[in-house]
Structure formats: C-alpha cells, structure tokens
Amino acid sequence: MSGDVRARPASDGAIGLVVPADWWVVPLADEAERGRVIAAMVDHQVGAGDEYAALRRRLRVDVGAAARRAAARDGWVIAFMLMHAAGHPLPATMIGYRSPGSFRDEAGVADVRAALEDVAAMTGGRVEAGAGPFGVVLRAVRVRTGSWHGVADLPLLACDHWTDPGDGHGLVHLAFTTPLVALREPIGELFDAVASTLHRSDPVPGDDHPEPGDPCGAMPAPSGTRWP
C-alpha cells in the first residue's frame, strides 16, 4: 500500500485507523446511522432499479444482522471490503473491538499471548508477535469453516490482531475474515497494512460521519508492522 492510495477513516473517538476507499465503513454505536450507512452501501453495490428490490432487502437484512452481532459483542466498527480484480469481487470484513487486557509490561503480553495460544491450538492457528504503531502486536492466522452471507460450511481465512494503545481502555482487537483462502499471503499483507494504520484519534468537529462512498483523503504510508 502506497501513500497515494485513497482511503477513509474509522474511529471510536479515541482510536482510529484508515482503510482503502473501496472498503465501506459502518459505525456501530448509533443504530440509526448504522442502518443509513448499510442502506447506502447496498444501493451502491446493487443499484437502485426496481428489479433489484428483493436483493436489496435481503442484503440489508443480512448485513444489518452482521452489524448487530458485532455491536452486541462490543464492536465499534465493521468494514466491508468491496474491491474487485479483473471483474471479480474480493470480499472481506473487518470488525474492530476493545477487549480486556493490557500489554503494560512483558508479563501482560505473555499472559494475553498464552490465552490466545490456547485458543489457536484448538483451531489449528498460530500466534505471532510483531511490532506495530503502539508497540507489541499479537497476530493469529487460521483457516476455519463457517458461513459467509448465508452460504454455510465455507473455508474462511481469519486474521486477528491485538495491540494495546495504552489509553487504559483495554486492547484493540481487529478481526479480519475472508473466503479468499487461496490468496492467504497477499490478502494477509493487506490486512497487516490496515492494522498498521491504527492511531490515537480525536473526533473532528462537524465531521463525525463522512458521507459513505466519498474518499476521505490519501491513506498515509503505514509505518508497517514488523514480524520476525
């Protein structure tokens, strides 16, 4: 990802990140705003013709249910990757959470890593430690079976990142999921690049909710998360 990639921000008011402009950011805290953004996203993807009315309704229900589940689990944002390559969609989702835990010292990192490794061992994944914008980043990558927009029993690539911004509100957990298992390396690098844009943020007065679909500036060249 280079510095001239168009992007849009996502923030919970304290922590922010930026994603490519062809991702669609859905804030989760405000139910009305959540519904407005989902409706705009579906219209953008499907079109406004009467012949697509049933499809739009189904997608709004499916995406809305996913957003409600994320909000119920204390998620603060969900983003949908709407990229295309050679006319083919490249779908993925990202959910941002705040989770209990602290990387205040080596013991804190070790405790969180041990808990994550216990879970990863049961799912065939592995946990790696790297260095990111806030210091230590723990990443777990695994392939699991799950459902994707109503299609059951699909192999899915799951990439999870945890880091501590040091603001006293716990860990930031970014959960990326995609059915593009065959693109594990390049899609994983993209997820790493998005995670590397995490930063402390303050809300911009009068600009809490950028218009969906409008680029919001150039994505900064990420400092890069370094892995051993």
What would your notes on this structure say?
Helix 1 (31-46) runs antiparallel to helix 2 (53-72). The chain is globular, with a radius of gyration of 17 Å. It is 29% helix and 36% strand. A hairpin with a 2-residue loop joins strand 6 and strand 7 (135-148). It has 228 residues and is of the alpha+beta class. It has helices at residues 31-46, 53-72, 106-123, 184-195, and strands spanning 7-11, 15-20, 23-27, 75-85, 88-99, 126-132, 135-148, 151-163, 171-178, 199-200.
- Helix and strand composition category: alpha+beta
Strand order of the largest sheet: 3-4-5-9-8-7-6
What is the number of helical segments per DSSP (H or I, 4+ residues)?
4
Net shape: globular
What's the Cα radius of gyration? Answer: 17 Å
As residue ranges, the low-confidence spans are: 1-6, 203-224
Number of strands: 10
Summarize the helix and strand pattern as letters.
EEEHHEEHEEEEHE
Mean pLDDT across every amino acid position? 81
Level of helix content?
25-40%
Quote the beta fraction: 35-45%
- Biggest sheet statistics: 7 strands, antiparallel
